[in-house]
Amino acid sequence: MGVFVTGVRPRWSDMDAFGHVNHANTVTLLEEARIELLFTEAARHGVKEMAEGMVVARLAVDYLAPIVFTGEAVVVEMSVRELKAASFTLDYVVRGGREPDSPVLTRAETLMAPYNVTTARPRRLTDAERDFLAGWRAGGSGA
């Protein structure tokens, strides 16, 4: 249905003095989930260019409930929106479990831009990248 789902496991060291995952470490959990989609899953589909240069141009996070260390993974659901020639937005929903009615702990979005590390400049998405990302649009069919 256009949603990529992966699990990321918070670490004991991610917690802060209040007993929940620190806000900065939540961003790291989002990054780990994003790598699964844009690098691992993309490469599995033959799209390796993303791993050669992709940067976060904007990040917004809504912390709805604490993420606590339980030893279990939290579930991150990601979908693509606003797919443009040289950028796209990833939407994230972080849930406390694998059940569809598990509580939503965090919602986030990142504006992503493909980047050429050799020239140190933004670049356009390739056709293969656009096709891969289009498969993960909200309401799409998945890749």
From TrEMBL:
One of its GO terms (molecular function) is fatty acyl-CoA hydrolase activity. SUPFAM superfamilies: Thioesterase/thiol ester dehydrase-isomerase (SSF54637). It comes from the Bacteria. The keyword Cytoplasm does not apply. Pfam families: 4HBT_2 (PF13279). The keyword Hydrolase applies. Keywords: Hydrolase. This is Acyl-CoA thioester hydrolase. It comes from Lentzea fradiae.
